[in-house]
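Category: protein sequence paired with discrete backbone structure
Discipline: computational structural biology
Format: plain text, a pair of labelled lines
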Amino acid sequence: MREIVFDTETTGFDPAKGDRLVEMGCIELVNRVATGRSFHAYYNPDRSMPAEAEAVHGLSDAFLADKPRFHESAEELLEFLGDSPLVAHNATFDFGFLNAELAMCGLEAVSMDRMVDTLAIAKRRHPGAKLSLDALCSRYGVDRSHRTFHGALLDAELLAQVYVELTGGRQIGLELASTVTETTIIEFRRSPAKKREFRAPRPHDASEEELARHREFLTTIASPLWDT
């Protein structure tokens, strides 16, 4: 089964108030195994970047000034997403921004039926625990030491590892993918069966001496059930 794990960076929290998508990162999984295929893009939001948002992801107005607008590569993104389920952490946030950008392009929204929310999964598995991406990386031993800012592609890579652990761990990769890409080769090797040495069956019948001792023992039992 093909799935896309993705993350977004934005200028704020609410597209209805003018906030825009500025970065999109996607990782392809097939049967919960990363294939090595990804999609990554920065977008010029045509508005200034609030200082609070820049402090989170490090994307400045100057950096984004020469980046394409979302509508200029929207078709490329949609082609990568295909019709696969889309996995995100607090997914309603990411879906909200993605669909807002698609609406501004006059394109059809991505169905919420395709949404897989790792935050909701984590709440069911670890009620009462801290459930941020950082906290889940710590819980599952996912290395995030190279993460200084939030970045859509890096966070998608981390989330892909967390998602595998949330849904059964790395053993789920033992299921063979129906499609194997150039970067994903799953091979099972079995040791050749060893030739078994034949052994004659061991005698299990009681000897005459043992039978005689058993009959003698039975005579010592008062009122045995078999005599009633």
In short: DSSP finds eight helices and five strands in the chain. The first strand starts at residue 2 and ends at 10. Residues 172-191 have pLDDT under 50 and may be disordered. Residues 196 and 202 are 17 Å apart (CA to CA).
